[in-house]
């Protein structure tokens, strides 16, 4: 399956998908030391986003969340790429300062955790293994 | 979004890493929100100052950015800092030092307009403190979106911001008319009205009828409470604020605020004095006029307070209060003016259990932190306090 979105931050990545159906808050929602999702309302609570291709509909919560994304990168626990339905300030800014490839305009409901994905953020292209 | 030749070069990294990252943030936001181009700004006000809020991750980001040679290109001030234990204060000082290295004035206040960061009508800004954003947009007629910390810092470095949202005429029009059919006369009445409207309206641009504020502090408080309980960044008051006469050109929905709405807010924050162990005035930071009023009320009261009174204010206002003798009077009655900090962004849980305040914004936050809260006007508070 091929999906086309829009580049928010350029770059390329390949890895296993982790998909959240719910909006994700990074401040208080993801542990910057481990990359494990702690947000009580999240459907991927307890799972790690480290080294994965992270997909979710949109960000929520405090704007300080941008710094949490930066900390994940510094700690080697960041996702390899971020795919969202709709980009907003917090996640976009976090991805930029951390240098994580990011694509928006992706219909997250079509994605399944565990599949392999190839992301070419420069072109806004996402390819999912069938 | 259209970029000039120079902006393209900055984005390509020709001017170094810091400017490139800053430009990437602005361009991404411009694309997200459909801006046509970047526009120059006159000043910036940066959130993300309290160590309680930004943590070690924020310090690391700021250090990397400052080490890369990031420097602001417009007049830039900071949001209030936090106060805490020694370990906290050491980190807090690191944050301020990093901002100073980037050329930012480390005056840390939510009222930069009481100092040198005073915009004029029509100026474009990149400000990121919700009450200051409301003041700049509504009372001064300057133009700023509700920026986050990193986006206001990026704008300060580049000296520009993407042209969208409240920078555009069409988004500054009212979206709802509010008939105020209630007695709204005092500071706390305005606070309670703002608190009610923020919850009722979310992110509308309200046009308020029926208000006659006797001073600018009442409007400051109205906007701060609206921005805390909702996300209102601009409001108009008929006959009062600078853009009201061109704010309405459509048939708009009208809502009415009744006496009971305002009273309900006041009653929601009426915990007993026995549960209150500190008084807090200055959210947003107090003006010189507010401090003068407190000094006079304390002199009339004639006996020192048994619980401490904290007044938060900008360093500029504190210096004036010192020079004019108000600080000395306030200290004589067990009060203190604390410059450049904010209790809402300080780890003070456990230091106090109940707060009496005249601020709807603080009432809202302290209640959410689990404090007992008593909301009333400063003359009543200073008359009744133990």
UniProtKB/TrEMBL annotation, chain A:
GO annotation (BP), single: isopentenyl diphosphate biosynthetic process, mevalonate pathway
Keyword Iron-sulfur recorded: no
UniProt keyword terms in alphabetical order: Isoprene biosynthesis, Lyase
InterPro entries cross-referenced by the UniProt entry: PMDh-S-like, PMDh-S-like_dom, PMDh_S
Protein name per UniProt: Phosphomevalonate dehydratase small subunit
Top EC group: lyase
Phosphomevalonate dehydratase small subunit-like domain: residues covered: 24-103
Catalytic residues (positions): 62 (proton acceptor)
The protein's role, per its UniProt record: Component of a hydro-lyase that catalyzes the dehydration of mevalonate 5-phosphate (MVA5P) to form trans-anhydromevalonate 5-phosphate (tAHMP). Involved in the archaeal mevalonate (MVA) pathway, which provides fundamental precursors for isoprenoid biosynthesis, such as isopentenyl diphosphate (IPP) and dimethylallyl diphosphate (DMAPP).
MF-aspect GO terms: hydro-lyase activity
Database matches in PANTHER family: DUF521 DOMAIN PROTEIN (AFU_ORTHOLOGUE AFUA_6G00490) (PTHR36577:SF3)
Organism: Thermococcus barossii
Subunit text: Heterodimer composed of a large subunit (PMDh-L) and a small subunit (PMDh-S).
Recorded family membership: Belongs to the AcnX type II small subunit family.
EC number: 4.2.1.182
Record's keyword annotation contains Amino-acid biosynthesis: no
Automatic annotation (TrEMBL), chain B:
Entry EC no(s): 4.2.1.182
CDD domains in UniProt: AcnX
Metabolic or biological pathway, per its Swiss-Prot or TrEMBL entry: Isoprenoid biosynthesis; isopentenyl diphosphate biosynthesis via mevalonate pathway
Reaction equations catalysed: (R)-5-phosphomevalonate = (2E)-3-methyl-5-phosphooxypent-2-enoate + H2O
Pfam families (alphabetical): AcnX
Molecular-function GO terms, alphabetical: lyase activity
GO biological process: isoprenoid biosynthetic process
Alphabetical UniProt keywords: Iron, Isoprene biosynthesis, Lyase
Keyword Membrane belongs to the record: no
Domain Phosphomevalonate dehydratase large subunit-like: 1-382
Quaternary structure (record): Heterodimer composed of a large subunit (PMDh-L) and a small subunit (PMDh-S).
Family to which the UniProt record says this protein belongs: Belongs to the AcnX type II large subunit family.
Role, per record: Component of a hydro-lyase that catalyzes the dehydration of mevalonate 5-phosphate (MVA5P) to form trans-anhydromevalonate 5-phosphate (tAHMP). Involved in the archaeal mevalonate (MVA) pathway, which provides fundamental precursors for isoprenoid biosynthesis, such as isopentenyl diphosphate (IPP) and dimethylallyl diphosphate (DMAPP).
PANTHER family according to UniProt: DUF521 DOMAIN PROTEIN (AFU_ORTHOLOGUE AFUA_6G00490) (PTHR36577:SF3)
Protein name as it appears in the record: Phosphomevalonate dehydratase large subunit
